[in-house]
Amino acid sequence: MDFILQPWAWYVGGPLIAISLLLYFYFGKNFGASTNFETICTIFGADKVSDYFKKDWKDQKFALFFVIGLIIGGFIAANYLIPNQAIDLNPKTVQELTDLGFANVGNQYFPDEIFSDEVVFSLKGFLILLVSGLLIGFGTRYAGGCTSGHAITGLSSLQLPSLLAVIGFFIGGIIATWVIIPILFG
Amino acid sequence: MKNIKFLILGIFFAIVLSKSQAISWYRFYEMFKFQSFHMYGIIGGAVVISMIFMQLFKHGKIKDINGNKIVPKPKKEGFVSTILGGTLFGLGWGISGACAAPIFVILGFKLIPALILLAGALLGAFIYGVLSKKLPN
């Protein structure tokens, strides 16, 4: 039980992600997560606005079950499996973020400066999350995949589009953390 | 009922991501600032082991549950779409510390912020769908 409640090292997490991919393919489907955004749009009636969404969402039912599993798994992990969310961060990271005005850096998974109720219900905080989400939804669909579909499935099956997409992920991520975060919080 | 296995796999995957801190904002910040090996170890480790699985799929050593050969779907081609789409996704990922699967996982941790992220992601996917024919590939 002790192992379950401790944080898992990268050499535990990495292989278990690969096992998840293996099982997903073994169950007969292509591993990925971001197609679900489209499927949910279709369910909400996006097919009435654009032909792009004229797809039979029932073909994607398996993926929606996976999504429901993700939500349930998140609740289980948050409430029962992580008694302490403290993260062993690089002291440099802690110092940097503290200088930007972040408090209690690394004491929990999600910084209050972005995720606390107070921030989320402010205009700035709300927009930061909404626009981030928008970029995630638009970007994954334009690029044809996310971390699961491109970085893990695509790279491991040696697909060139995935290499390009992952280069894009890093260009965006580096701009976000080196430039945008200091502007938003500095 | 045949979809229940995907639900269970989703629970498993969510727990793996949560326990290995691969949903934490700080972990992705550190990754993009090159200040920690943790996420590189997780993603790199997952990719290397998945490569072995892909070889086993390719040579028919592992077949799917119905006995069929496993062939990963080819990704759509396109230089602009992958680089530009990837960059836009990376921006959202770098700011919020969330990518596609973790948005659903984070619902269990931070309900309201994750709902806002999800609403944004659905809106983003919707805008992409509406514009898809007009965007350069």
From TrEMBL, chain A:
<feature type="transmembrane region" description="Helical">
    <location>
        <begin position="119"/>
        <end position="139"/>
    </location>
</feature>
<keyword id="KW-0997">Cell inner membrane</keyword>
<keyword id="KW-1133">Transmembrane helix</keyword>
<dbReference type="Pfam" id="PF04143">
    <property type="entry name" value="Sulf_transp"/>
</dbReference>
<keyword id="KW-1003">Cell membrane</keyword>
<protein>
    <submittedName>
        <fullName>YeeE/YedE family protein</fullName>
    </submittedName>
</protein>
<feature type="transmembrane region" description="Helical">
    <location>
        <begin position="62"/>
        <end position="82"/>
    </location>
</feature>
<dbReference type="InterPro" id="IPR007272">
    <property type="entry name" value="Sulf_transp_TsuA/YedE"/>
</dbReference>
<feature type="transmembrane region" description="Helical">
    <location>
        <begin position="160"/>
        <end position="185"/>
    </location>
</feature>
<comment type="similarity">
    <text>Belongs to the TsuA/YedE (TC 9.B.102) family.</text>
</comment>
<keyword id="KW-0472">Membrane</keyword>
<feature type="transmembrane region" description="Helical">
    <location>
        <begin position="6"/>
        <end position="27"/>
    </location>
</feature>
<keyword id="KW-0813">Transport</keyword>
<keyword id="KW-0812">Transmembrane</keyword>
<dbReference type="GO" id="GO:0005886">
    <property type="term" value="C:plasma membrane"/>
</dbReference>
TrEMBL record, chain B:
<keyword id="KW-0812">Transmembrane</keyword>
<dbReference type="InterPro" id="IPR007272">
    <property type="entry name" value="Sulf_transp_TsuA/YedE"/>
</dbReference>
<dbReference type="Pfam" id="PF04143">
    <property type="entry name" value="Sulf_transp"/>
</dbReference>
<feature type="transmembrane region" description="Helical">
    <location>
        <begin position="38"/>
        <end position="57"/>
    </location>
</feature>
<feature type="transmembrane region" description="Helical">
    <location>
        <begin position="111"/>
        <end position="131"/>
    </location>
</feature>
<keyword id="KW-0472">Membrane</keyword>
<feature type="transmembrane region" description="Helical">
    <location>
        <begin position="78"/>
        <end position="105"/>
    </location>
</feature>
<keyword id="KW-1133">Transmembrane helix</keyword>
<protein>
    <submittedName>
        <fullName>Transporter</fullName>
    </submittedName>
</protein>
